[in-house]
TrEMBL record:
It comes from Acinetobacter johnsonii ANC 3681. Transmembrane segments: none annotated. Residues 39-126 form the Methyltransferase type domain. It comes from the Bacteria. The lineage of its organism: Bacteria, Pseudomonadati, Pseudomonadota, Gammaproteobacteria, Moraxellales. This is Methyltransferase type 11 domain-containing protein. Belongs to the methyltransferase superfamily. Keywords: Methyltransferase, Transferase.
Length: 250
């Protein structure tokens, strides 16, 4: 499991998009007994905070102490520094295991071995991710695509391809459950959009090797015609893969 987000963890917590309630409801439809959940690769708790109201207890793990320090407090949530591939949990501990926008950093075999070991017989694994931001303004969307596909080409970690492929190509050795199309919708200011872009790992890699500002084009756009005070409508496509243990009765 790779740690790519300890640096800038406070910005990550503030700027990353929040998951919608209908995502959690879709997952919960398949959880027979919502008692114990494990949110793996929890970061600063973007998904954890939505699980907490629905379970007796949630354990949220990450290898980044800095990220976990910025996660919200809940009485029934335990934050622990543990890797995805090696945990101290007892066998058949969880009714739900989730991993949101993180599984592409894991060693798949190691993590899935832990899922098979710690998931209860009727339990559910939910793998969640979201794709490239989509803005309604054509000029801004063109800026996004130039930044993502051209300026930052060669600066994304190899694992990013799994996001580009909407997690269709990750190994998934479970009995899969069909899921509907989902998305996250937001209205963001120029400052919020820039903060989000600054959480991109490839942007950090670019700045480490270049002196120019990769976000100059965005800042120039926002400076025109008072765009800096405008609210921008945007969405992120969500991809969700749900699975049960192989051979489980349901």
């Amino acid at each position: 499991m790779k740690d790519r987000f300890s640096s800038g963890s406070q910005l990550y917590q503030l700027a990353r998009p929040s998951y919608p309630a209908n995502l959690i409801q879709e997952i919960l439809k398949h959880v027979a007994t919502p008692q114990f959940a494990w949110d793996c690769g929890a970061g600063s708790g973007q998904l954890t905070q939505l699980l907490a109201p629905h379970f007796d207890a949630v354990v949220a793990t990450d290898i980044s102490a800095h990220q976990l320090q910025h996660a919200p407090y809940f009485e029934n949530v335990s934050y622990q520094i543990q890797s995805a591939e090696h945990t101290s949990f007892a066998e058949q501990s969880f009714d739900l295991i989730t991993v949101a926008q993180a599984i592409h950093w894991f060693d798949f075999d190691g993590f899935y071995a832990e899922v098979l070991r710690t998931l209860r017989p009727e339990g559910i694994l939910a793998v969640i991710g979201y794709g490239l931001i989509q803005l309604q303004q054509p000029e801004l969307q063109e800026c996004i695509e130039r930044l993502y596909f051209k300026t930052l080409k060669g600066y994304w970690d190899a694992e990013r391809r799994y996001i580009d492929e909407a997690y269709h190509t990750i190994p998934f050795p479970f009995e899969e459950i069909a899921t509907p199309e989902l998305s996250m919708l937001f209205q963001w200011s120029a400052a919020q959009l820039l903060d989000y872009l600054n959480t991109w790992s490839a942007l950090k890699h670019y700045r480490a090797k270049n002196s120019d500002d990769p976000l100059y084009e965005f800042k120039a756009f926002f400076a025109l015609d008072d765009h800096v005070n405008q609210v921008f409508e945007l969405k992120f496509p969500i991809f969700l893969r749900l699975g049960r243990l192989p051979g489980s009765a349901h």
